[in-house]
Amino acid sequence: MDASANTPQLLRRTNLRAVLEVLRSVPSVTGTDLINATGLTRATVIAVCDDLIARGWARETPSLRTDRQKGRPARRFEFNESAGYVLGLDVGIATVRVLAADLSGAVVGGSEARFPRHGGQPEERRDVVTAAVDAALADAGIEASAVLCTGMGIAAQVTGNGDVAPGQEVAPMFDLGLSREFGDTRGWPLLVENDAKLAALAERWRGVGAGEENLAVILAGERLGSGIIESGRLLHGASGGTGGMGALQLVEGVGNEDGIAKLARLWGSAALRDGHNGRIRELVGPDTNRASARLVFEAAAAGDPVAVEILNRIAARMARVLALVSSFFDPRLIVIGGAVAASATALLPAMTRELAHYVAEPPRLAVSDLGKMLVPTGAVRLALDYVETHLLNLVPEPKR
């Protein structure tokens, strides 16, 4: 078959993509604007815009005539952000969160659900996820057929092929057959990624690290995990393990992957068992020795010396983790995210002081302001990146 036979089709798709990229970057444009931006002829630009309108990716906007204008006003075109939707999922140990967003990234709906106690069996967990997805679609008021891609973050290492890396104790909790459920049954591409890596995408897109080219994000709730962006690229490594924290067992003064919330809970509870009778006890009450992380932070804010000492221990330990990340990846900014992000603000001064002992030029430290939407926001960004790359393949050719 003559390879040149495809040349007109390839040229047409190249022109479509060039115009579409401009439309996606501005509120609206005229044909003249598109000519200047793409270098295409007027006839080609108008033909491409009409083609994109037929496909549903663009729409024509009303043009207002001015008093000085003669003849027909120039046609104006804009990207149709409602041409399709993406879903972003955060599948954790205990909870699943789902965001539905249009093609501009604006969130139009969402849902949240809890898994059965102690995690549940794979079949039960899959049912919870699919029900949460259906609830998000209903909340957004969109049909399943309008979804173009789904991104999903999981609390486990993910290979470069999007599979749950083997050999992990938590693997059965996340290897749920959702690629078949969403891909074969619903026709959605499913992109799976580690949750900390998606947190990094989210922070660079819409968080305190917006636009930062060299960024590390550490999820620091129950377990520590990090996502690394270097020169604008999300790092994965040979098997998806970049940013993993398993080596912390080798770090003196750290020893494992326990996160801020878990440490605060464990050390606060230990203080109660040892007879502490201060503000932590007042907040927890007399009938239990189990302290939550939130109450330990509250007690520290109220001046409880035991709680303050716990936070100082956590800050000193976290500074060693930050030093490790800083030494290996040299980010300009490290963002602390996850379930404890709001409370972790209290740790920033001590972590900053301690980090200076280990790193000659410490990166700036910050706390994420995306809250529990951090990972699903990154999953939305992952799905949008896929759609933007494959845009012209996601809908059929318009009928002529």
UniProtKB/TrEMBL annotation:
InterPro entries (alphabetical): ATPase_NBD (IPR043129), ROK (IPR000600), WH-like_DNA-bd_sf (IPR036388), WH_DNA-bd_sf (IPR036390)
Domain of life: Bacteria
Signal peptide: none
Family membership: Belongs to the ROK (NagC/XylR) family.
PANTHER family: BIFUNCTIONAL UDP-N-ACETYLGLUCOSAMINE 2-EPIMERASE_N-ACETYLMANNOSAMINE KINASE, ROK (REPRESSOR, ORF, KINASE) FAMILY
Name used for this protein in its record: ROK family protein
